[in-house]
Amino acid sequence: MLFTSLDYYLFLPIVALVFFLTPVRFRWAWLLVASYYFYMDWNPWYIWLIVGSTLIDYTAALQIEGAANRQRKKAWLWLSIVANLGLLFTFKYFNFLSGEAAKVARLFQPEFEAYHLDILLPVGISFYTFQTMAYTIDVYKGFTKAERHLGRYALYVSFFPQLVAGPIERSRDLLSQFHFNYQFDYQRIVGGLQLILWGLFKKLVIADRLALFVDEVYGHPAQYEGFTVWLASVFFLFQIFCDFSAYTDIAIGSARILGVRLSQNFENRVYVITSFNKFWRGWHITLTNWFRDYVFFQLTPMGRGMAWILVATVISFTLNGIWHGAEWTFLIWGGLNGLFVALEALLSKPADRWLSQFGLSKGKPIRWLVDFALFFNLAVVSIIFFRAVNIQDAFMLIGQLPKISPIQLHESIADIVGVRDFLIAAGMLIFMDVMHRLFRGQDIDAYFRQIPWWARLGFYVLLINLILYLRVPEQQAFIYFEF
């Protein structure tokens, strides 16, 4: 059940209507039933993975909190971690590692065959396993209390708006909300609908249109070079922002209708990259914070000095890359971003002093342009590894970048999507950025409460018409459903 499908917009109002008609003490049960139904629409059998993970972590947290000694607490914590990482390993990484091991084995035994599990990756498994692991770790560290109510804990694991692709919520932020008495709030529901509409615009009008160009270039890497590869990579950076932030907007909006507030996952203009440290504070915020809290902060006490902190940074980002998928491309993408963040932390002050000698001190417009040109293009190069089908394609595309030909770029645009569709995509990106400037770091709901009703109405009409007339007919799944 895609967030862009008609089925979802029949499902959501029914869930909301029954929710507000249900007595308060039973509302959690209705949301749990709706969430399980939502997930079973993808694959009914995989609901048992969520149920299993829920029962293991629910039990582990209670045992951790009630354990008489540290060894027993640690044993239950490791049970939770091993169980969740075991699920991820089996469904996401086993076939990849088996294949790589087979390549090594064939050096000594050419006829060696890799063992392959005939299974599909369960939707959302990377998200809900990290969410439940965070819960047991927080209980172990004393940051949160173990939840006694199994039903409400099960809802925390499976809450349908954020089940498939986040945000990855902490128990102190989400689980506690399922104990509240929600009242119908017209303004909150309007705010949720605004977020859903804005998300649909970003997904259907911008992300899916950019995908037409990106998919062609990355699907045939030997045929394109220079500006075409660069533009496809720029477009992919915007595509994945529009695609994933659209999912997040729809998730947050859907939850808000039900009285639940989810975490922000993207800053509005995070794509204006003038610093990798700043970029990663605004990009996939809940996952970045997860690796900061549960990996980076655990690694830093193991060594001393700035050098070890930089190593811990690279390790954390490399694991972030591996979380995205079982491919060398994701490992390299994560490692590169960790390296960029580490080098910026190491070199930013000396670079500031050196550039100031040439009149390029911080705060000047020309310095902003220099920073943007450097960091944005580094992000564009690194995103090639994220999007490429395999490591060979990634290096081929990077090798094609220096072969610059403006004529070939024009021909590629005309052949791949047509000048009209290209101009529509560019125009909609500009429109989105203008709106993000107006939002000034707020979400759409907060912004629209400050403007007259007729301006809000005009914007709704405009967005609906843009979606109806400029959407791409071929419906595409959200990119992060693959992870």
UniProtKB/TrEMBL annotation:
Record Pfam families: MBOAT
Coiled-coil portions: none
Q: Which UniProt keywords apply?
A: Acyltransferase, Cell membrane, Membrane, Transferase, Transmembrane, Transmembrane helix
Membrane topology note: Multi-pass membrane protein
Which Gene Ontology molecular function entries are recorded, alphabetically? Answer: acyltransferase activity
Cellular component (GO) terms are: plasma membrane
Q: Where is the signal peptide?
A: none
Membrane spanning residue stretches: 12-39, 45-64, 76-94, 114-130, 227-247, 306-324, 330-347, 368-389, 409-432, 453-472
Q: Where does the record say this protein resides?
A: Cell membrane
Biological process annotations from GO = alginic acid biosynthetic process
Q: Which family does it belong to?
A: Belongs to the membrane-bound acyltransferase family.
Q: What is this protein called?
A: Acyltransferase
